Amino acid sequence: MSLKCIVMDMKAKSVQDLLLYLMMIKQSFCHFGTNSFTQLLLESSEIACKSQTEVNIGGKVATYFTEIYEQLKAEGIITCVINLIKIYTDYKLWITGHSLGGALASLAAAEIASSGLINAQNIKLLTLGQPRTGNWVWAAAMDQILPYYNYRVVNHRDVIVHLPMRFFEGYHHYNTEIWYNNGMDGNEDGEEDTFIVCNDMDEDDDNCSNSLWQ
C-alpha cells in the first residue's frame, strides 16, 4: 500500500489550496475500499465483530476504521501533511475520500484540526458515500472541531451511508449532508443536478436521504 500527498498551486485562480487526497493504491480490494456487495458484507462483518474505540476528540469510532487509520499513519501520511502545512502556511487543506476512504478522511481531518497547526477555517473536509463512522458523541465533536467546511455527499439511495445501523452501538453521522436525490443523472436529462442541504443532527429528517430507509 502506498500513499500520496499532492500539492496543487492554484495561484492562477487567486486561490492557494493545499489538496490532500488520501489515495491508497490497493494491494487487496477486500481490505481497502467498498467496490462490491461482497466487500460491503466483509466490512460490515468486521465492524459488527469489533467494538468501538475511544478517540481524542471525544466519543467512539468503529475499531475497524481506527485500525486501518493507524496503518495509514504508520505509512507516514499525517507526518507528510504536517510537513506540508509548515511549508505552505497560507494554503487551505482539502481532505477527501470515498466510502471507507470517507471515514478515514474524517479521522485525519479531526486529528489535524486538533493539532492546532492549521486554522480550522482552512480545513475543507468533503467525503463521498461515507458510512456512519462513530457514535453520537463523536459526531457532535466533529461538528465542534470542524464547523466551517465539513460536508458529506450522498448519492440518492446509497446504502453504505446508512451503515452501520444507528441502533448498533449508537452510530450517528455528523453534519452536514448534501443529498443528491436524483441519482446525479441530471446531465443525462439535460438538466442540472439538484441537491438538498441537510444540516440537522436529527437523521430522521424526512427531507434527507434517511427518508428512503425508514
UniProtKB/TrEMBL annotation:
Any Pfam family hit: Lipase_3
Q: Name one GO biological process term.
A: lipid metabolic process
Q: Which domain of life is it from?
A: Eukaryota
Residue ranges of the Fungal lipase-type domain? 33-166
SUPFAM superfamilies recorded: alpha/beta-Hydrolases (SSF53474)
The identity of this protein, by name, is: Fungal lipase-type domain-containing protein
